[in-house]
Specification:
This protein is an alpha+beta fold. It is built from 5 helices and 7 strands; from the N terminus they run αββββαββαααβ. The chain has a 7-stranded antiparallel β-sheet.
Length: 156
């Protein structure tokens, strides 16, 4: 990834906004319809680590996407310890986190996200170089660099 990529700048903005996002995501507000707080166990420290993330509910499970792919700290923590806690609207639940294993599963997730939240997802796709209407090849290319996690609530 080149130094001119918009991704590092976006991550700096998100880090700056994290306290505000955490405040609103951890309460029963309109934001809790799209944001949750994920609590993982730090892979080095063993301490709880909380991250506000966008989510999509598909059936009984919750899905989280990482534009940073497997390099995101929360994804690395999940690889080490898949038992997590999640707060939606201030209600905490235990869950088991599973990384989606195939490109096809991730493309399917992206299609659902595009249908339900086109503006938000098109912005994320733009960060990965997809402009205009994303085609099947675009989704496959992006699916190979992002990570998607399924949260199975009640397990952990």
């Amino acid at each position: 990834m080149s130094s001119s990529s918009p991704l590092p700048a976006m991550w700096r903005v998100m880090r700056f906004m994290k306290p505000w996002i955490m405040f609103w995501a951890s309460r029963r507000t309109p934001l809790s319809r799209v944001l949750l707080v994920l609590e993982t166990t730090g892979r080095k420290s063993g301490l709880p680590r909380r991250t506000p993330l966008q989510y999509e509910r598909i059936g009984p499970d919750y899905y989280l996407g990482s534009s940073r792919g497997s390099e995101a700290d929360w994804v690395r923590n999940i690889r080490n310890q898949p038992a997590v806690r999640v707060s939606i609207g201030g209600v905490w639940m235990t869950a088991r986190a599973e990384l989606l294993a195939t490109t096809e599963e991730i493309v399917s997730f992206l299609r659902i996200r595009l249908e339900r939240n086109p503006i938000m997802v098109k912005q994320m796709l733009r960060l990965h170089g997809v402009t205009g209407r994303p085609g099947p090849d675009d989704l496959v290319r992006v699916a190979k660099v992002i990570a998607v996690v399924r949260l199975v609530v009640g397990e952990g």
